[in-house]
Amino acid sequence: MKSQTLNQETVRVSNFEELTSVAYSSQLIYRELNERPLQEEDLIEQLRGNMEQLQDLQARMKSMTREIRYLMKV
Question: Where do the domains of the chain lie?
Answer without folding.
Answer: 2-73
